[in-house]
Design brief:
467 residues, alpha+beta, five-stranded mixed beta sheet, 7 helices, 50% helix
Length: 467
C-alpha cells in the first residue's frame, strides 16, 4: 500500500516536472516572440521616421524649387504643369525643348547684344563728331581763301582806278591829240571794272551757297535720334470734373497763356509717331515750373491722365521756332483767307513767321536754314486772276524748302499736332451741305436736369482698348 502511494507520488512529481518544463519552454518562447515583435516595431518606427524625414526634405526641396521659379508654396503639381505649358507656349515657342533656363540665357544674350549696339552707336557718334570738326576746319580755310581773293580783287580795283586817274590827268594835258585814244582807254577800263564787279558778285554768291550747303550738311550729319522727337512737358495733375490739367512748364520756360499743346500717352517715346489723345490750352501760369490749362479735346475712352506727355510744333522751351506759310489758308472752312489768324496763332504760341507769299508771285520775308517748317495750305489751282501769282509763290516756296532741306507739313497736320481747332465752323446749306453737319438724334421727351444731383457731373469712362 505504501509502495503504491510512492509510485503515485513519483508519477505526480514526474507529471509536475513535465508540466513545469512545458510552462518554462512556453514562457521562453513567448518572451522571445515578444522581443522579436518589439525589435520589429522599433525597426519599423525607425524606417517610418527615416521615410518621413526624407519626405520632408523632398517636400522642402520642391517648395524651394517652386519659390525659385516664382510659384507659390500652395500651388499643386497640376497648377505648375499648366503654368509651365502656358509659359513655354508664350515665351518658348521658338526654342527646341524649351525651359526657363534657356529663356533666361536668351534674354541675357539679347541684352548683351543691345549693350554692344549702344556702344557701337556711341563710337559712331564720336566718329561723326570728329568728321564734323574736320568739315568746320575746311570751311574756315575756304572762307579765309575767299576773303584773301576778295581783298586782292579790291586792291587790283584800286590800282586800276589810280592808273585811270593818272591816265585822265595825262589825257587832259594831251586832250586835243589823244581824244580818240582816251575814249578807247575809258571803254577798256569800264569793261575791266564791270568784269571785276561781276567776278566779285560771283564769288560772294559762291560763298553764300557754300555756307548754306555746309549748314545743311551739318544738320544732316547729326547721328539719328532713337526717340525722334521728345515731349515738351508732362501732365502733373488732372481735374476731369472741371476739364483742367496742370503741366510742369511755367514762367522759367518762357511759357505764356493761350499756348496750345497736343497730349500723348505717357509711354510714347516719339510724339511725332504717337497717336494724339487730346489737346489743352494754357490759361494761366502758376509758378516757375507749373501752369494751368483747360482741356479742349479728349476722348471718353482715352481720358487725359497724370504722366501723359504734351508737345507743341510751335512753342519750344527757351527759343523761337521759325515757320513759313504758303497756299490758301482757310481755318474754319468759310471760304475766306485766314493767313493773318494763322500768323497770330503761331505768334501766340511763341513761334515766328519767317516768310509768306507777297501776292505778286514772290516771297515776303526770307526762308533760311533756321526755318523749321513750311506750312502748306490748299494749292490755288481753280482760282483765276491774282491766284496765278499765288501759284507762283506756292511753287517758288516749295522749291526753296527742298533746297534748304526745310521740313514740309500740311496745314491740317500742323493744326492737329498743335492741338488747335476752330471753336466755330459755319454750316453750309444747299448743294454744298455736308451730311456730317446734321447728325441724327432720337426724339425724346425733355426732362429738366435735377438740382443738387451729381448724375451728370461726370462722363462715363471706359477702359482704354488694348488692341
Amino acid at each position: 500500500m505504501a509502495s503504491r502511494d510512492n509510485q503515485t507520488m513519483q508519477i505526480f512529481i514526474i507529471v509536475l516536472a513535465l508540466v513545469s518544463l512545458c510552462l518554462s519552454v512556453g514562457l521562453f518562447m513567448v518572451n522571445n516572440a515578444r522581443k522579436t515583435a518589439r525589435a520589429q516595431a522599433a525597426n519599423a518606427k525607425e524606417s517610418e521616421d527615416a521615410a518621413r524625414k526624407t519626405a520632408n526634405e523632398k517636400n522642402n526641396e520642391a517648395t524651394d524649387y517652386k519659390t525659385w521659379i516664382g510659384y507659390a508654396e500652395a500651388d499643386t503639381f497640376q497648377d505648375l504643369t499648366k503654368t509651365f505649358e502656358d509659359d513655354m507656349t508664350r515665351w518658348g515657342g521658338t526654342f527646341e525643348n524649351p525651359s526657363y533656363r534657356k529663356i533666361l540665357e536668351n534674354i541675357f544674350e539679347e541684352n548683351r547684344k543691345l549693350a554692344q549696339s549702344e556702344a557701337d552707336a556711341k563710337a559712331q557718334a564720336k566718329t561723326l563728331q570728329a568728321q564734323l570738326l574736320e568739315v568746320e576746319k575746311q570751311k574756315n580755310a575756304q572762307i579765309a581763301e575767299f576773303e584773301s581773293k576778295a581783298n586782292k580783287a579790291i586792291e587790283d580795283k584800286e590800282g586800276l582806278r589810280i592808273k585811270f586817274d593818272k591816265d585822265r590827268e595825262k589825257s587832259d594835258s594831251e586832250k586835243a591829240e589823244i581824244a580818240a585814244q582816251l575814249a578807247a582807254k575809258r571803254d577798256e577800263l569800264d569793261k575791266m571794272v564791270a568784269d571785276h564787279n561781276q567776278a566779285r558778285e560771283d564769288l560772294m554768291t559762291k560763298i553764300t551757297d557754300l555756307e548754306r550747303v555746309i549748314e545743311i550738311y551739318k544738320i544732316n550729319t547729326f547721328p539719328p535720334d532713337p526717340f525722334a522727337q521728345p515731349e515738351d512737358g508732362l501732365i502733373s495733375w488732372v481735374n476731369q470734373r472741371e476739364g483742367k490739367v496742370w503741366i510742369n512748364i511755367g514762367e522759367s520756360d518762357h511759357l505764356r497763356p493761350q499756348v496750345t499743346f497736343s497730349v500723348y500717352s505717357g509711354d510714347a517715346n516719339d510724339v511725332n509717331a504717337a497717336v494724339t489723345k487730346g489737346a489743352i490750352e494754357v490759361v494761366r501760369l502758376l509758378g516757375a515750373n507749373m501752369a494751368e490749362a483747360r482741356i479742349t479735346d479728349d476722348l471718353a475712352t482715352r481720358p487725359l491722365m497724370v504722366g501723359d506727355k504734351v508737345y507743341s510744333q510751335v512753342w519750344s522751351r527757351g527759343r523761337q521756332i521759325g515757320f513759313a506759310v504758303t497756299g490758301v489758308v482757310d481755318l474754319d472752312g468759310n471760304g475766306t483767307d485766314d493767313l493773318k489768324q494763322l500768323k497770330q496763332i503761331v505768334r501766340v504760341n511763341g513761334g515766328k513767321v519767317d516768310a509768306t507769299p507777297d501776292g505778286e508771285g514772290g516771297i515776303e520775308g526770307e526762308m533760311t536754314v533756321d526755318t523749321r517748317y513750311l506750312i502748306l495750305g490748299k494749292f490755288p489751282e481753280n482760282e483765276i486772276g491774282p491766284a496765278s501769282a499765288a501759284r507762283d509763290s506756292y511753287q517758288l516756296m516749295s522749291g526753296k524748302a527742298d533746297t534748304l532741306n526745310i521740313e514740309v507739313i500740311s496745314l491740317d497736320d500742323f493744326l492737329n499736332v498743335m492741338g488747335w481747332r476752330a471753336e466755330h465752323r459755319p454750316v453750309r446749306y444747299g448743294a454744298d451741305a455736308r451730311s456730317e453737319d446734321f447728325p441724327p438724334s432720337p426724339t425724346r421727351d425733355y426732362k429738366p436736369r435735377q438740382l443738387n444731383s451729381s448724375k451728370d457731373l461726370f462722363r462715363p469712362r471706359k477702359p482704354q482698348p488694348t488692341y
